[in-house]
Write a structure and sequence with these properties.
29% of the residues lie in helices and 29% in strands. It has 119 residues and is an alpha+beta fold. Helix 1 packs across helix 3. The longest helix is centred in the N-terminal third of the chain and has 14 residues. The termini are far apart.
Amino acid sequence: MSKQEHVIQAEIQLAASDSGIPLFRNNVGAYKTQEGYYVRYGVGGAGGSDLIGIAPIVITPDMVGKTVGVFTAIEVKTKKGKPTEKQNKFIRSIKRLGAIAGVARSPAEAIEIIKNFKP
């Protein structure tokens, strides 16, 4: 039996935390107020990745030698799950801006996405 997405998500959060990379659940959606207005929430709107955070990246000595935080977005899917076009667009835009983003189906894949980041 395949793991459910929320289980994989929790495992990724724990593994990332153990690696010093805090990732937070990014609930994306909207609700309608009693007055009829929509309040939207979540980073990235429709297509925003499931987990977001900041990965500490050590800048090499030729880059001043400081650690900086890099915005990180991980879209979590089951083994058979596929990201939507809006999710793929969000991931592409985050990468284009120089941050870390990708689709992970396991904690190992999420850590690999983060550790293989090249600015």
